[in-house]
Amino acid sequence: xxxxxxxxxxxxxxxxxxxxxIPLPARMAKCTPDTHRAITSLExxxxxxxGELILSxxxxxxxxxxxxxxxxxxxSRRPYSPPPGESFHEAGRAFDIDINAIKIPLIEFxxxxxxxxxxxxxxxxxxxxxxxxHFECRGSHQLLYNYFASRGGGRxxxxxxxxxxxxxxxxxVNVDSFNDQLVEATIQSSLxxxxxxxxxxDGEIGPRSKAGLxxxxxxxxxxxxxxxxxxxxxxxxxxxxxxxAVVASVA
Length: 251
Ligand SMILES: [Zn+2]
What we know:
There is one protein chain. The chain is α+β, with helices and mostly antiparallel strands and 251 residues long. It folds into 2 domains: 132 residues, Muramoyl-pentapeptide Carboxypeptidase, domain 2 (2-Layer Sandwich), CATH 3.30.1380; 104 residues, no CATH class. It has 8 helices and 8 strands; from the N terminus they run E-E-E-E-H-E-H-E-H-E-E-H-H-H-H-H. The strands form 3 sheets. Strands 5-6-8-7 form a 4-stranded antiparallel beta sheet, with helices on one face. A two-stranded antiparallel sheet has the order 1-4. The longest helix is centred in the first third of the chain and has 16 residues. It is globular, with a radius of gyration of 19 Å. Zinc ion binds next to strand 6.
């Protein structure tokens, strides 16, 4: 199956007409199951310290990401937002927080976040820096980052962009750079997450991708590509159950 996006009920910095805070609007309030667990856990940990996890952004569709990008281009005072295909927000794996509401030093929140697999995007815990509010739950897509970081960055010279592509593909959404080869690209990113060395993530199933599939007992030239995708997705579900399990297991 695809990595599901599930709804989340979380406070937002948006307000109703009376000025009272409202939950994050439904179009943004969805994320992957592992991100859901991480956000819920951070909300609870912050509450224990007298703070609040208040979000200004979470999921963005292609259209929403495109609008954020265009808004930034037309108004340089708006924070930088990349074009569609380059943000973990589009995979339901990034969220922006109200830093003033956490009521603990940012460095302390970073530690709290690290404990639940959440990382910042800036290098130093300084609240005044742009994007200090942005956090990501990269899950197994970190493996693509590691893979391409060790290979000089992939097609676009950015290991980060490859990891984002993988995360977006995993929810069944295409990324423009693969043209209409969504299925092929998703098979490739799945192979890398399954530990195979296939070269570039480019939507072209070449000899190395086919060899990786063969190691998994799958023959690309015999089975249909959709059948192959189903098979690798089942393997991913087994390897990374927390990214697919909608109901959190009770410890
Ligand atoms: Zn963000």
